[in-house]
Give the backbone structure.
Amino acid sequence: MRIQRFLMLAAVLVILSAGGCSPKEKNIGKAGDTPPQMVAILPGMIEDQSWNKINYEGILKCRETLGVNLECVEDVAESDFESVLRKYASEGYGLIMAAGAQFDNVVSVVAQEFPKTTFCVVNGSFCDGRNVAPVFPKEYEASYLASIIAGNVTESGTFGIIAGYPNTPMENLLDVYEKNALEIAGRRGINNPQALRSYANSWSNVELGRKMAEQMIDSGADTLFIYANEVGLGCIQAAKEKNVKVIGFSDNQNDLGPGIVSASICFDFGSLYSWTVSQYLDGELKGNRVHEVGIQEGIFVPVYPDGTSETLIEEVDRGTMDFLEGKVKLTDWFTEDK
């Protein structure tokens, strides 16, 4: 598999520069002090080949890189969010990380009761509280990279887009993907390119994902982009049956559909979790602000299956450099009326 080397190097530099010392030199307290208790809470199963899997892999990498005991609890139902957060906070955990914007509201409530605990929502956008410090991967930057792949591999110019739930961060990343993919297809001479966007209102209904993908394919979509956790597994199954392309997103999904998944944009959450925990241990994970990371920090990495054309790789490289040089401003592509 082909991976952009300079983005991998950027991810390494982020980890090494966090706090100004190497992982082994990390100051986690005076000799004899009890290390702070830390836990990460995942809303789904780690086998989903998407959001929960990449978060779990990030947790494991963080443990290895920093030598810390970051605990993990998976598959927590939304109805149990508040009780689980309150359980760990009442037990004296210093850092509670919760993976997903769906935790935003409940964290803002629970955090007020436990001012000595730092609450960090991964992909969160609410920061109302001195002890609420969300870390936001700018996923619209990842979808920008995905759109370059999609715009260059489509033949029909019809893009199928399936997402979990319509919240502002999700709509922003889909706006960026849709606008750039359509523009690239148009520049390639494809007449009247179009995007079909739909929400599953679920993260786990695999069969629903398969049916939604089939409907889009029957409507002419030859390239699918899915960001819906386990729902995406059904979408990929439909793509395999109908022989259409998929752009992998969040995790390396290339092996889920050899010959079907054109490439994947992976989230390097090892860097994200290591950076976040380092900031916390150094007392720099400040509340009342959203901490943002993205392409510049090496969080999003394209992974190509064997046999990928050099032309496609060069197009993604060129688009990445355009972004880093400030030639494109992705926030201008958000739809204002949401």
